Amino acid sequence: MRTGSPPVKVLVADDQRDVLDSLRLLLKGEGYQVETTTSPAGVLSAVKSTDFDCLLMDLNYARDTTSGEEGLDLLNRLQVLDSSLPVVVMTAWGTVDVAVEAMRRGARDFIQKPWENARLIAIISTQVELSRALRRGQRLEAENQLLRGADLPSLIAQSMAMRPVLERIARVGPSDANVLITGEHGTGKEVVARTLHALSGRASKPLVAVNVGGLSEHLFESELFGHVKGAFTDARTDRVGRFDLADGGSLFLDEIGNLPLNQQAKLLRVIETGEFERVGSSKTHRVNVRIISATNASLKELVAAGRFREDLFFRLNTVEVHLPPLRDRREDIPLLAQHFLGEHSTRYRKHVSGFSEPALKALLSHPWPGNVRELAHAVERAVLMSNGSQIAAADLGLEAPSGTSSRIESMSLEDVERFLIQKALERFDGNVSQAATALGLSRGALYRRLERYGLDHGDDQNDEV
Ligand SMILES: Nc1ncnc2c1ncn2[C@@H]1O[C@H](COP(=O)(O)OP(=O)(O)OP(=O)(O)O)[C@@H](O)[C@H]1O
Ligand SMILES: [Mg+2]
Question: How far is the C-alpha of 256 from the C-alpha of 241, rounded, in Å?
């Protein structure tokens, strides 16, 4: 352990004295400060009075039991008391199902008895590091919120499928590493970008977002690097670019997979050197920016197809965070739904507090092709439709996924707009100008909507401005 840092406190709970003794010896030898207790009640009172960095606990307390019931109950209570305390459970050999249940209830890891010393130490030290990073992040987030008065991202994820994702976020968030976030539409890439930034030492500086896939070649440079007055016809004043704005903070490059090759080259240079010039100026600017990028395409495939520069790919994905689709993390659906319910019932001043049993079933069995965003919209709609204290299955309108017309009736205005824009882009092979004409929109208005809905469109570099 580093000298000078505060002692790391570990609480160990087991009803067998000899187990406690040997664990105390082992952990003290590693430099940890150890407290022990022999009962669930002892754990609760210790956690209330002291801030531990990790809790290592047995699941069985009454003599001759192996069901783990008491330990599992204790986990539920600990979640309420302090969900940020990392808990590692000890289970009897061959009771993996109990360990899995423990993880469902919030344990971060498990180790089987009799344990292997090296493995136990490795698990504890990983959990301690993670929780320190997370708690520091939470503190920074809180400070940040005070500074900016801004809403913080709430990243809801308790499923097994999201655990490695959360661990990765906790690990790389505080670093300066460039992160590439991948996942289908609506899986929460932007939420993750905001969380990474909030966890970092840059949290008090801005996170500047730019949808690079939605910019014409001409706009790309002046958006990112800025321009000086007179650089081109419309440049009536100087303009500060996003790289300048993000100096000291993070730059979120959304829809990076849609970036045309020649713009990729320009971006690469800035990422490699931290230097750029405003359009129309020869003065070199130098910035310190962390790049977080996101895409719903597979950059690897784009590289293989010659549509994405490999060198840029390697610069962007120092670390990759992949978000699984919602259908692969159904355990999160009730929590997410409840979260959106709270948000929208406040917003629309409706007294709806939960979901009926059939409504919950419908939520759990829907395929959610639009992922978390689709879920958020479905709940919003249901809140508006509802006239009871609970959301009923019918309020959700999830039954009829077949046939376009019946779908449109149950879609929100935004969804319909998004759907029509998608269709128009498909019809014109991604040509934004033609799609805009067909929709009766100006090109700029269409770009703004593309950005709002995070929609893909093909390269429009031949598209005239
Ligand atoms: N884990 C989560 N917890 C809470 N809210 C979430 C979570 N994931 C997504 N959301 C919400 O779902 C909506 C869509 O998320 P987000 O915009 O981050 O998705 P995305 O992956 O960037 O989508 P796209 O590819 O379409 O840009 C947002 O309103 C966001 O707040
Ligand atoms: Mg997005």
Answer: 18
Protein residue closest via CA to atom 23 of ligand 1: 186
- With a threshold of 0.85, does the pTM exceed it? no
Structure tokens, 368: 């959610």
DSSP annotation of 94 reads: T
Whole-number Å distance, alpha carbon 384 to ligand 2 midpoint, is: 25
CA distance 344 to 375: 12
Ligand 1 test: best mutation among 372, 374, 412, 452, most atoms within 8 Å of CB? 372
Q: Give the C-alpha distances (Å, rounded to integers) separating 134 from 171, 195, 457.
A: 8, 11, 37
Q: CA 147, CA 106: separation in Å to the nearest integer?
A: 31
Q: What backbone torsions phi and psi does residue 196 show, to the nearest 5 degrees?
A: -60, -45
Nearest CA to ligand 1 atom 5: 155
- Looking at residue 23, its pLDDT comes to 96
| Residue 186 Cα to ligand 2 middle (Å) | 7
How far is the centre of ligand 2, averaged over its atoms, from the C-alpha of 256 (Å)? 11
What is the number of alpha carbons within 13 Å of residue 29 lying toward its C-beta? 10
H or E element that contains 13: strand 9-13
Compute the distance between CA of residue 110 and CA of residue 58 in angstroms, rounded to an integer: 10
Pocket of ligand 1 (CB under 6 A): 154-157, 183, 185-191, 296, 336, 339, 372-373, 376, 454
Q: Which of 184, 207, 195 is nearest to 257 (CA)?
A: 184
H helices within 149-237, ranges in order? 163-172, 189-199, 217-225
> Ligand 2 centre and the CA of 401: distance in Å?
24
- Nearest residue (CA) to ligand 1, atom 16: 188
Alpha-carbon radius of gyration of the chain: 26
Residue 335 has pLDDT above 70, yes or no: yes
How far is CA 137 from each of CA 83, 159, 173, 194, 432, rounded to the nearest angstrom? 15, 21, 8, 12, 41
pLDDT tens digits along 386-432: 888 999 998 998 864 444 444 566 677 778 888 888 888 887 888 89
**Residue range 35-87, pLDDT digits in tens:** 999 999 999 999 988 889 999 999 988 755 677 888 999 998 888 777 778 99
Q: What sign does the CA torsion over 431, 433, 436, 437 have?
A: negative
Q: For the chain, how many helices (H) and strands (E)? A: 20, 16
